[in-house]
Amino acid sequence: MGDARATAKVRVNGAPAEATLFCTEPPGAGGGREGGPEFRWRCHGGTAAERVLSLDADVLGVEARGKEVVVKAFVAVDAARLVPCAAGVGKGGERKRCRRDYVFEMAAGEDAAADWGDRTRACLDSLGRPKRLFILVNPFGGKKCAKKIYQTEIKPLFQAAETQYHGHAREVASSLDLAQYDGIVCVSGDGVLIEVVNGILQRIDWEEAIKIPIGVLPAGTGNGMAKSLLHSASETYSVPNAVFAIIRGHRQSLDVCTILQGTKKFFSVLHMTWGLVADIDIESEKYRWMGSARFDFYALVRIMNLRKYYGSIRFVPAPGYEAYEDAVKQVENCTVECQEQDVKSVCSYQGPSVEFQGSEWRSLDDPFVSVWINNVPWAAESIMEAPGAKFSDGYMDAIIVRDCPKADLLALLMKMSDGSHVRCFRLSPGHLVENPKRGGIIDVDGEVIARGEGTCGKNQIQGVMCYGPPIQMTVHRALATVYSPK
After folding, report:
1. Is 190 tagged catalytic?
2. Residues in domain DAGKc (predicted)?
3. Among the listed residues 64, 251, 131, 18, the one whose alpha carbon sits nearest the alpha carbon of residue 72
4. Cα–Cα distance between 462 and 312 in angstroms, integer?
């Protein structure tokens, strides 16, 4: 890369200044500011403090045009930060950002501008940012505006391929030549992300394939994963912030939950629900035109006509939660065996190898209003149901409601706050308390995996599980990787 520091006389947006490009950590940097390569400059003839642009945290790219170096930035609302000032913050401590260009006119002319452009691009390359991304666009998610969002806010940055039908992303991820790409990006709600994870884990080379980072650009109804990732970094929830997180290339490990029923298997990264929350999520589909407001509206409808379901729950508590509920002996452990093909064992991912026969299982009995098992803090952009959930701690957060006055239940849904932690969870769903001929819905990451008798609508995925027999959910810690703002 040559010298790690370059200084030049410039005009910054028309004002004379002296600028320095640091391609490594500058001497004396700190003060809570993100370190690494950066631009620093101070305008002449004024009392303004030194200004700073971090190449990692602020800069999208750079272009040399004649004797000008144009730095394309995505900065906090206070523009270039004062040293050692923190980034601009919005409501709730979230950082707000805006798109801005900084034009450095080099006093030494075009050769100096070309040199600074080359140096800056080399600095950006050293950050390990992804350059080859395969993008999946779901044109049917949310208010069906993913194409518009892609065209207006994302297309200038990425080369893409659009999904054509439900389940297409899963097929693509199961056969894509991943060696050609640095990452996969989903322009959708959470549905395409789930398809991609399931497709990757169906591959024979899943152990290598699952290492590819997955980016999430919110363009659906729920957008729980994008909201969780941005909130964890105190970034404002927005499409541009999600795009910038992918451009920067920072990564976050993510737990993957395996859901088993006999030989049937499904993988989850968000949540599993049964009862009230599943009914709200799936039955509100007919109000999709309302966007995320459909959840609030239909929650009120369902609470006013509250349902309860018979069933049983068994779980292995996380350390510190062993005293919850009654102890019970565990029955057989759910496993799926590899199939033999041509005398060679050819297996996709079979789930975590953890055994729970010797664990202290606990029990809860019916009736139940709602069961909600969570892997990330946010279920949707406006629903933070599990604030203590971590992306890669190896545990699930459980919210279980057996009985509750309607007014209190409505207040609970409006202000989600806490849950109990489990390592392994088993659900045996039963029929509606008021109607023994009607069952419920089991919803995993917005996909129906099991429907009871009497529920309306068609199954959304092939290989759907049966409603009634036990369904077991276990966690593989930090199995997948997603792009994260930090």
Report:
1. yes
2. 128-263
3. 64
4. 26
3-state SS assignment for residue 284: helix
Instruction: Identify the sign of the CA torsion 446, 447, 452, 456.
Output: positive
Give the model confidence (pLDDT) of 417-435 as tens digits. 446 788 889 999 999 999 9
The closest of 311, 277, 269 to 416, measured between CA atoms, is 277
Give the CA dihedral 454, 458, 461, 467, nearest 10 degrees.
Answer: 10
For residue 81, what pLDDT is reported?
43
Contact in structure between 246 and 133 (CB atoms under 8 Å): yes
Least confident of 47-61, 311-325, 428-442: 47-61
Alpha-carbon distance 467 to 240, whole Å?
A: 41
Q: In the numeric block, which tokens belong to residue 228?
A: 């969780």
Residues 147, 148, 153, CA angle at the centre, nearest 5°?
A: 105
Range scoring the smallest mean pLDDT among 146-155, 338-347, 352-361: 338-347
User: Residue 455, Cα to own-chain centre: how many angstroms?
Assistant: 30
Instruction: Parse the chain into domains and list their residue ranges.
Output: 5-126, 133-254, 260-476
**pLDDT of res. 121:** 86
5-126 matches 133-254 in fold: no
Q: Exposed, middle or buried: residue 353 (CB in 10 Å: 0-12, 13-18, 19+)?
A: exposed
Superfamily of domain 133-254: Probable inorganic polyphosphate/atp-NAD kinase; domain 1 (3.40.50.10330)
Is the pLDDT at 89 greater than 70? The verdict is no
What's the CA gap between 261 and 448, in Å, rounded?
A: 14
CATH architecture type of domain 5-126: Roll (2.30)
Q: How far apart are the first and last CA of the chain?
A: 25
Mean pLDDT of 449-454: 90
Predicted local confidence at residue 268, as pLDDT: 95
Per the model's pLDDT, the better-predicted residue between 34 and 451 turns out to be 451
Concatenating the DSSP letter of every residue in 157-175 gives: T--EEE--STTHHHHHHHH
Over residues 34-39, the mean pLDDT reads 76
With a cut of 70, say whether residue 247 has pLDDT above it: yes
- What number does CATH give the domain 260-476? 2.60.200.40
Question: Do 187 and 219 touch, CB atoms closer than 8 A?
Answer: yes
Neighbours of 60 (CB within 10 A): 20
Do 396 and 371 touch, CB atoms closer than 8 A?
Answer: no
Q: Out of 56, 58, 115, 190, which one is annotated catalytic? A: 190
Q: For residue 378, give the nearest of 368, 390, 369 by alpha carbon.
A: 390
Q: What is the pTM of this model?
A: 0.80
Is 477:393 a contact under the CB 8 Å cutoff? Answer: yes
